[in-house]
Amino acid sequence: MDIKIAAENFDLFYGDFQALKSINMKIYPKTVTALIGPSGCGKTTFLRSLNRMNDLLDNVRTAGKITLDNTEIYQPKVDVVALRKRVGMVFQRPNPFPMSIYDNIAYGPRIHGIKDKQQLNEIVERSLSGAALWEEVKDRLHTPALRLSGGQQQRLCIARLLAVEPEVLLMDEPASALDPISTGKIEDLIMELKKDYTIVIVTHNMQQAARISGQLGFFLLGRLVEYGSTEAVMTNPAQQETEDYLTGRFG
Ligand SMILES: Nc1ncnc2c1ncn2[C@@H]1O[C@H](COP(=O)(O)OP(=O)(O)OP(=O)(O)O)[C@@H](O)[C@H]1O
């Protein structure tokens, strides 16, 4: 199978503390890969390593490799802005900009130099449709995004990513702050987006991981203890620690 992202013996240190220990993981295109594990095991750190978000902190050091389409992303010559356009991220709490729905979506394309009104209109409609939000907001595109519900705000943040035509979507517990109905909509959306995008998602919700992911990685104390198809890991884990976690014996 093709590989979109590969981590090879990847380590990450916050100062003296090693948060990721020799991670080896192949992430497949147009697949949902879920990362699970107890609090503090390194899931978010790994997710943020995939578009070099950790570079924003000054005490971070990495070793080993992460490649995107076979190109090493930690090479000094890599354009980090271009990398984050290709590999976008959605956070636990929706974070729309304090501006209109329209301007939230047009923000990225404008930064990348698109000024034509007609073209921006098309991007806004396409992105909101792609995030299953268009029908709900098409009549109030110029109202503040912060007036949307939490679930709508999260879909807006996904639409904002789609507007810059990414290839990979990183999602850090995107539904954990949402009610069950909004969570269901985000899950449906993820299943739809997987047809076109590679998705890596951190979740604490095992049922959610079972419902939406094709590949599953179990992290423990900075190590990737188990990785494989979600069905195989869930029904027949190779490691005792995975089984203990899945059956609720710890975590
Ligand atoms: N900026 C930082 N500086 C120092 N240590 C950090 C920093 N961010 C995270 N850590 C530490 O790195 C380890 C991994 O944290 P990380 O947030 O990746 O875990 P996680 O598995 O995502 O946890 P959770 O499920 O609680 O979000 C933890 O021990 C954490 O305390």
From TrEMBL:
Transmembrane portions of the chain: none
One of the record's GO molecular function terms: ATP hydrolysis activity
GO cellular component, one term: membrane
Keyword Transport: yes
Entries under InterPro entries matching the protein: AAA+_ATPase (IPR003593), ABC_transporter-like_ATP-bd (IPR003439), ABC_transporter-like_CS (IPR017871), P-loop_NTPase (IPR027417), PstB-like (IPR005670)
UniProt keywords, alphabetically: ATP-binding, Nucleotide-binding, Transport
Gene Ontology biological process terms from the UniProt entry: phosphate ion transmembrane transport
Taxonomic superkingdom: Bacteria
UniProt xrefs under Gene3D superfamilies: P-loop containing nucleotide triphosphate hydrolases
Domain ABC transporter: 5-246
Pfam families found in the cross-reference section: ABC_tran
Record keyword Transport present: yes
CDD domains attached to this UniProt entry: ABC_PstB_phosphate_transporter
Protein name in the entry: Phosphate ABC transporter ATP-binding protein (PhoT family)
Organismal lineage: Bacteria, Bacillati, Bacillota, Hydrogenispora
